[in-house]
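agent> call fold_tool(seq_1)
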Amino acid sequence: MEHIRQDIRKPLNQFFDSVLSYLEQVQLETEIIKPAISQEKLERIFSLDEPGSAANIKRLINQYLASTVRTGNPYFFNQLFSGFSLYGFIGEVITALTNSSMYTFEMSPVATIMEKELISKMSKLVGYPTGGGTFVPGGSNGNMLAMLAARHRFAPQSKWKGLFGVSPLVAFISEDAHYSMLKAASQVGIGIKNVKKIPVNEQGQMITEDLEDAIIDVKNNGKLPFFVGATSGTTVRGVFDPLEEIGSICRKFDLWFHVDGSWGGSILLSSVHRDLLAGAELSDSFSWCAHKMMGAPLMCTVALFKKPDILMEINQISGTDYLFHDEQDAQLDLGNISLQCGRRVDALKLWLSWKYYGDKGYEKNIDRLFSLARYAAKKVEQSADLRLLNDVKSLNICFQVCPKGISADAYNDITVRVRNHLMETGGPMVNYAYIKSDLVIRLITANFELRETHLDQFFDQVNKAIDFVLKK
């Protein structure tokens, strides 16, 4: 490396020293998960008003690392992702280092082969033997791409003429579906008011009888049902809609059937738990976020399609001769099937991680996360001050703080105060949400490094927070 300029070598050495120091700190069980630093101070430190020297940049990098949320720490339970992926990180570094784009095989030959192999493997796991797809920047984009494909199937001229003169298209989702479905309806011109929310049962699953009734009602009112979005792993309760029943209804009425498997899609790697997605093979499209239950760095999402030719139909456009030159490489130029033109290499980090873990390694990790979720649920059930509010089917544990002698009307307030006290004291970081009118703490067991001792410590901290809140 002697030929590398000193002005490059020295900052890189310093940077990787900072990376190693950060990783050592992140893994400490005593580490504060969310450092307390005000917005005003952050704005002052990270101002672009003055140019910075190399020494100043080094200080700012360290300040950034010191100020960020420690998502790699075992006590980060806040989102549907957690942990640090060594080979995912290496993949991200190589991606930035090589700085390629995924539009043509000529530009990114190795990454193209990797992406196609991953898409093929994941399609087969869903149940699409000849399926295909593309990497997208998140589950929300995957859901939107699926709705756009469905729109094209039912109103193909909309690509050229818009939706003028087309009967109103109506989509159906559950009450607990991700909000991105509503955004997708807005983005592809369907309109949020043309999305019908189907009630869920006590467990949080879409009620299929109500779905069928809603489809019939829409048809009787002169509108065109076209899309049903099921959820495999809802955001709050981690619930799986009955895909076989929904798939049967979609076949009956000839509707596009999409599965939002952003959270739960990775369970297809587990022979023990994949029955939660029974019927996925009946769907037309499937969103899957590997940055969640597979631990890849953000973002790492695929949108999969049973009949992938539709991606070419909705995305190919004229005026691209400057970029796509060789007819022979048409099937390898992934820009032809992507909403984007320039697109970063997201496949490498997942490919390296999958090469390291293999199917069996991922299965072992996912099964262990399920065991930890059951362990956490049992801790809640054994507590006199906590109440479990969901049937724990995957990695979501939703519970409420309900101490004896306290009115039920105060449970929501006490629960959020307990959660906020954990945050304010730098302890475990966990989120909260509503299940109907009940405010709950939502604990997620998604970190491959998580152990039962971490959960024991988490609930010890919850108990201390309860004592503090009740005495205040």
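agent> call fold_tool(seq_2)
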Amino acid sequence: MDRRTLLKSGAALGLVSSVPGYVLAAGSSSGPAVAGALTDLAAVRGDRSPVVIGADALRNLRASLRGRLLLAADPGYDEARQVLNGAIDRRPALIVQPTGAADVCTAVSFASSLGLLVAVKCGGHSYSGQSTCDGGLQIDLGAMRGVRVDPTARRAWVAGGTLLGAVDHEALAQGLAAPLGTVSHTGVGGLTTGGGFGRLARRFGLALDNVTSVDIVTADGTLRRASRDENPDLYWAVRGGGGNFGVVTAFEFQLHPVQRTVIGGTLVFPVARARELLQRYAEVSVSAPDELYVDCFIVQPAQGTPSCGFDICWSGPERDAERVLAPLRKVGTPVVDRVAAINYAALQRSGDVTDPRSQGSYTKSGFTTELSERTIDAILRGLKGDATRNSTVYFQHLGGAIGRVAPDATAFPFRYARQNMMVFSDWKAREDGTGPIAWVREYWKTLEPATRGVYINEMDASDGAAVVNANFLGNYPRLAALKRRYDPANLFRLNANITPS
């Protein structure tokens, strides 16, 4: 790395640990790893062609970081490269763990100078494993975690590597919330830049609809602020364009007053009631008040009893809960009824997986505007049990405030969607996933005609450029032009990748 690059990176602003009021995550690194002997390192460029990183370049990189540079032999390397999906086992050539924006600028400048393949990891929830890579540079934001809440302004400033559970915890303590996702160990960065569906989204919009500004390091290694008034085109693109435009080092969220206690939990029914459950969901999901969020699932486990049910969150007045939930209870007598008054942050943690990397996983998904009898028939006809896999059909509830935003107001164009239909298969991570993956793909062919558009955070890594580009609908031409402006060499390509125009 040359002197100009070092000076440019060192001049970047905003180390998270220096911001007054941030609550830093336990275990955050505050210094570089102990430097061992460095030798030339084999790596790959973005086009997967080989490149050798010289030992001097690695020494300069390590010396310029406040955070850690990890190579394969270093303690912490294996933990850093892991992602949620246990079927993904990739080995980056090197991992940078920044402690703030300056380190991110340094890492991005280094990668850009060599054209390295770059993966960015926040929570590691990408089903297709886009937050890690083989042979490239992984930027692991796990040491950049912190939240500061201003209850008067109803704003939260969130460091780029933060998990959503920390935002829920800090905001709810002030009687406020941001409409983030549904699993507390999800990374705020990937969730928000792609969309961000959650239990409060029907009331307050997607996570990205509540972003008022971001700090983002673009492909040239420059830290930029993007908001309605500053770099407004980048602000538009990063809200729905995913990781295509850079590494977000900080988010500013609008917060909303909420009751700390909601009515939520799960109703589980025998799988024999699956048709009636889907029919009831078809009615309720399009007519529900904004305060009601209800997901629907059918599960065929590898071992155990098949079931179906609803995941519920009612954030309106408690006195109205029984009346609003009555249509869901008409499915029959549940075998499990966990719907009760619960702290909102606790409900957000209720779906957490305690050992996520023990399972391999594969999914297909698509947005729907209705759940027709024809689609219900296809779901029930094709969902079969198998001893080698757990099989699930899941509907996530959309609509409400999400749909009251113009499709070109942000880069997220799918405002028409009422549900997100997903098919999951998971299996023991050490076992071969070929069969489960093949089953999902074949089953999905029977359901895909009922969908229009795919949530970019759930796109298959095998989807070609034409499929990905078309999925941005009418927003694609503007996104392609901005991709060319901010990332013409396509440094940030491990995502739902936009082809620079």
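agent> summarizing second result for user.
The first strand starts at residue 23 and ends at 24. The chain has 15 helices and 22 strands.
agent> awaiting next instruction.
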